[in-house]
Design a protein that fits this description.
Layout lengths: L1 H15 L26 E2 L7 E7 L5 E2 L2 E5 L3 E8 L5 E6 L1 H13 L10 E4 L4 E7 L4 E6 L11 E7 L4
Length: 165
């Protein structure tokens, strides 16, 4: 059993040396080859089904504009994250609990590579898109989880209004 744990630890360390931080990774969340995974806040959307685009601006004042978004249950939306700042920012969708946990990991491992359809990592002066189907009503969150940004208040909310049945 100790041998298996040692092999697993060595494999993990070897792969960690081959990863890159946010600034070096090609982040194209919409082009992921994995099948969409249902999350509490929805599921990766099909770009052909986008009903509207919502532009969310990010700046070095550690704020999103707008800081609150409202959509209808079932809507597939393109969230266009525009970085108007001079440093890397990101937009990550999730629940408050998941974002809190992810932010703690980013504090411990600031160069950690991560990419998912509900994330857009955006260099200064650039933009990135998240195509998401909000198929569950409720209030969810988005944030920049770059170390220090989340802690400075770079967060927002999304209200998914139930569709009349």
């Amino acid at each position: 059993m100790k041998t298996i744990k040692l092999i697993a630890a060595c494999a993990l360390l070897a792969s960690a040396g081959a990863t890159f931080g946010h600034e070096n990774s090609p982040h194209h969340a919409a082009s992921t080859a994995m099948p969409p995974e249902q999350k509490d806040w929805g599921i990766a959307g099909d770009v052909q089904a986008v009903s509207r685009t919502i532009t969310v601006r990010m700046g070095d004042n550690m704020r999103f504009t707008p800081g609150h978004i409202e959509v209808q249950e079932g809507d597939t939306v393109r969230l266009r994250a525009e970085n108007q700042g001079k440093v890397l920012h990101e937009m990550v969708l999730g629940t408050r609990a998941e974002l809190d946990q992810h932010a703690q990991m980013m504090q411990k491992f600031p160069g950690m590579e991560h990419d998912a359809p509900y994330m857009a990592h955006v260099r200064a002066g650039q933009r990135g898109d998240i195509v998401w189907q909000f198929n569950r009503p409720g209030t969810f969150d988005f944030a920049c989880l770059i170390a220090g940004h989340y802690q400075a208040g770079m967060t927002g909310t999304i209200t998914v209004v139930p569709r009349s049945r």
